[in-house]
Design brief:
The chain has 139 residues and is mainly alpha-helical. The chain has 9 helices and no strands.
Length: 139
């Protein structure tokens, strides 16, 4: 039996800030890497709803096994300027967190700190090295 999904109702709940309802509706239909693009999109929406609702602990739990949750959490930490949390995640092997950390430090004009972060966390990561050594914009 095919699960039914009322996207309009989920969108309305989201628009009203009724996070619990929106999350319940979307997560019940969502499926990571589904062949059904509607289910996959719902999965991505679910991760976004967790951020909007401020359910970062739940997002972090998903991030342990779900690359989409991991990336969304890393992007959130970058957007919020939370370099110490990005550093911790990078040190635990999260490449996306390392790249966001480098971008964040560079955006602050801290190119030397960005280069040091790469040297400390993963001095063999060619992409991180390239990011850290790009010339600063306008400089």
């Amino acid at each position: 039996m095919e699960a039914r999904f009322d996207q309009a109702s989920a969108e309305a709940a989201e628009a009203h800030g009724d996070w619990a309802t929106a999350i319940a509706m979307v997560s019940g239909f969502a499926e990571c890497y589904s062949r059904d693009h509607h289910r996959h999109n719902a999965h991505m929406w679910h991760m976004e709803l967790l951020v909007k609702a401020g359910f970062l602990h739940e997002l972090a739990e998903h991030a342990k096994t779900d690359v989409h949750a991991q990336r969304r959490l890393d992007r959130y930490l970058y957007e919020e300027g939370r370099d110490s949390e990005l550093r911790q995640r990078g040190q635990r092997g999260d490449k996306t967190a390392l790249y966001f950390l480098v971008r964040l430090l560079r955006a602050r004009g801290e190119q030397t700190a960005a280069q040091q972060a790469v040297a400390d966390i993963d001095p063999t990561d060619a992409f991180a090295i390239e990011l850290a050594h790009q010339p600063l914009a306008g400089g």
